[in-house]
Structure formats: C-alpha cells, structure tokens
Amino acid sequence: MRDYSRVFWRGCEMDAGYETGVLKAADVHRAFAVIQLIMPGMGLETWRIITATEVSRHDWLTVTDTKGYLRGLCYVFVRDHPPSARQLEVPVCASISLFNEQDIAKRLFEVIKQRAAETGCEKIHFWRVVARDWKSLEDLKETEPRNNGLVYDLNTDLNDALQSILPVKM
Q1: CA–CA separation, 36 vs 109, rounded Å?
Q2: CA distances in angstroms from 160 to 46, 77, 112, 155, 156, listed in the order given
Q3: Which domain of life does this protein belong to (predicted)?
Q4: pLDDT digits (tens, 9 = 90+) for 47-87
Q5: In degrees rounded to 5, what are phi and psi of residue 107?
Q6: If you write DSSP's letter for every residue of the chain in order, what string do you get?
Q7: What distance lies between CA 121 and its chain's CA centroid?
Q8: How far apart are CA 96 and CA 70, in angstroms?
Q9: Which residues have CB under 8 Å from 25's CB, separation 6+?
Q10: What domains can you pick out in the chain, each with its CATH number?
Q11: Which pLDDT tens digit goes with each residue over 127-156?
Q12: How many CB atoms lie within 10 A of CB 114?
C-alpha cells in the first residue's frame, strides 16, 4: 500500500500550482458559493456554523489554485463498516474548473486517499445520493445505505485503478 503518512492538514503542495488540505477559515465564504450549487437548501448562517472552528472544518477537504481560488471541495467522515474495516464516506465531492477539471478531481481524489489512509480506512465510499441541505446530510449519515454509490479499495494494486473501484447498487 502506498505511504500517505504526510501530515496533510497543514496543506501539501502538489505540482501545477495546486494546494490541497483542509478548508481554511479564509476560504469559508468562497466555499459557500460551491456548496450552494451542490446543496441548494444550505443557508449561509448554517454554513457559517458548521465551518466556524478549525475542528468543524477538519472534514472539509479542498484544492486551491495559486491565486487562492477554490477548485475542489469535499466533505468526508469515517464510519465503521462491518464486516470489513473502517470506511471513509464521501457524501459531497466537487471539482470546479473550465479547463482543468480532471486534474483538479485527481488532486481531490489524492487528498481523499490520504485522509482515508491516515484514519485507518481500507475503503472510500463515494455517495450517489446528494443531500439538499445540512440536516438532510446529517439524517443520511444515519440511514444512507452503505453500499450505494462507488467504493474504492485502498488495498488493491494502485497501478490497476479499474480493479480498485467497486461499483455497488445505484
């Protein structure tokens, strides 16, 4: 398995001028413009509350460009997933670019894999269902089928990415 042991919450430079890491306080309002497109029922006041502290922003991962523009955003959390091990859940994931969306998505995927490895997760579950607002997302955390969407297995050969992605019921 690849070594993702770098401390990424301080941010880690990636080539092509992108930086990945945790949502910073200075980027909360920029991120709201993105989250509103994904979760149209999310109000600014709710967004401010759920991103008010460093701890509350810890599960929001970002990709920013050299000018400081937010280019990728995702929300992650860890869930125990019997009978297998822990699984990183990704209910929100978006890359934003007119010309370089795939490269940004790749960098976002890398930071998600880093978080999964750091938290002892063997799999990453990308949700198919997108919540309309924060309360709906919180409700889905409890009821969302754990096999709905795409699952990426970190224990597979990373050179054969197609084998790593396990489609599940949609």
Answers
A1: 21
A2: 41, 26, 18, 11, 8
A3: Bacteria
A4: 999 999 999 999 999 999 998 899 999 999 998 876 667 89
A5: -65, -40
A6: -----S--TT-EE-GGG-EEEEPPGGGHHHHHHHHHHH-TT--HHHHHHHTSSHHHHTTEEEEE-TT--EEEEEEEEEEE-TTS-EEEEEEEEEE--SS-HHHHHHHHHHHHHHHHHHTT-SEEEEES---SSHHHHHHHHHHS-TTSEEEEETTS-TT-HHHHEEE---
A7: 14
A8: 8
A9: 51, 54, 57
A10: 12-167 (3.40.630.30)
A11: 887 788 888 888 888 776 666 788 888 887
A12: 21
Residue 27, both tokens: 């980027």
The two most distant CA atoms of the chain are separated, in Å, by: 44
Q: Please give the model's pTM, rounded to 2 decimal places.
A: 0.79
Q: Which amino acid type is present at position 48?
A: R
160 Cβ contact list (under 8 Å, min separation 6): none
